[in-house]
Design goal:
With 313 residues, the protein is of the alpha+beta class. Helices cover 37% and strands 22% of the residues. The strands form 3 sheets. Strands 8, 9, 10, 11, 12 and 13 form a 6-stranded antiparallel sheet that branches. Helix 1 crosses helix 12 and helix 6 packs across helix 7. The longest helix has 17 residues. The protein is globular and about 60 Å long. The protein starts with 5 loop residues before the first strand and ends with a helix.
């Protein structure tokens, strides 16, 4: 089988537009290096007519943030009967909502930090100070605050003192209408990517993340040189095995397809804690999945080509 016409879909209108564009360019260049006929398209008002008038063999979505990861664009691709790489809409919706994803993987046997998810209205209606006090009483300190939906660490921050929680919530609500507040787990931050070739999920080597000041925020993620990435991660054999098993378990439990990236913390006792999963992993020069692909001895272009070929009739 050969690919005659491929569309890489990037950009969109989310807060992560710039990152998505960088991911799209990298995937496009990797496929072009293999002489795959590929077109880089934005998710704009011209897209539907283009897909209808010149249907591609398959689409590779690298849209980050809302629409790209909440299943909606994939719903449109299914309406048009256009094959695409990645999870189907229903699975995206579950994975995109962090509290729901945590519930699903917890039922599948994974550890995940105790948390509470609250919409902005609760703080307005019940009184912010009272709600924040009860959160600290229940979960203790330190905490980690992030939007229930979203990526690239936008609106996410640690909270070490109770007095910091209010500002963290304000920062979180700038990027979403609901906040996930969870216990902060000390340990080694790792990311494990999962790929499917031939329908069988396979975990790639874990990437250890050593961010400046311990803050793996937006800048640390996408500015080259700010963060140290160690692959494979410096884990004991037991912890490494648990981390890869956890990523595959999350991939399967959430009903994902083709590729995913699971973020984890490994504590001092080698216990693995699930944080979240990404259905459209970044593909930029500082992104974690391409690093793991390289360390695994694979070529990014050949991987993308194989994932596209998975969906040819």
């Amino acid at each position: 089988m050969e690919l005659g016409h491929v569309v890489v879909l990037a950009g969109g209108l989310s807060y992560e537009r710039e990152v998505s564009q960088r991911s799209g360019r990298r995937v496009t260049e990797a496929l072009r290096a293999l002489d795959v006929p590929v077109e880089l398209r934005d998710a704009d008002a011209t897209l539907l007519d283009s897909l209808v008038n010149d249907p591609p063999d398959a689409v590779f979505p690298v849209l980050h943030g809302a629409a790209g990861e909440d299943g909606s664009i994939r719903d449109v691709l299914e309406l048009l009967d256009v094959p695409y790489v990645g999870a189907r809409p229903d699975a995206c919706r579950v994975a995109w909502d962090k509290p729901t994803a945590k519930s699903v993987v917890r039922r599948a046997g994974l550890n995940t930090p105790e948390s509470v998810a609250l919409p902005k209205e609760v703080f307005h209606d019940l009184g912010a100070s009272s709600v924040l006090e009860q959160i600290v009483n229940r979960l203790g300190l330190p905490l980690f605050v992030k939007p229930t939906r979203g990526g690239s660490a936008l609106g996410a921050s640690p909270v070490h003192e109770a007095a910091e929680l209010s500002a963290a919530m304000v920062g979180c609500f700038a990027y979403g209408d609901a906040a996930l507040v969870e216990r902060y787990v000390e340990g080694t931050e790792v990311s494990v990517s999962v790929i499917e070739i031939g329908g069988e999920p396979r975990a790639l080597p874990a990437v250890e993340i050593v961010a400046p000041g311990g803050r793996y925020d937006y800048t640390a993620r996408y500015d080259a040189g700010d963060t140290e990435f160690i692959t494979p991660a410096r884990l004991s054999p037991q912890a490494a095995e648990r981390a890869t098993a956890a990523a595959v378990t999350a991939h399967r439990a959430l009903g994902l397809r083709d590729l995913s990236r699971t973020d984890l913390i490994v504590d001092a006792d080698d216990e693995v804690h699930f944080l979240e999963v990404n259905v459209a992993p970044g593909m930029t020069e500082t992104s974690l999945l391409p690093r793991a692909v390289s360390v695994a001895g694979l070529d990014l272009g050949h991987l993308c080509q194989s994932l596209l070929l998975n969906h040819l009739p």
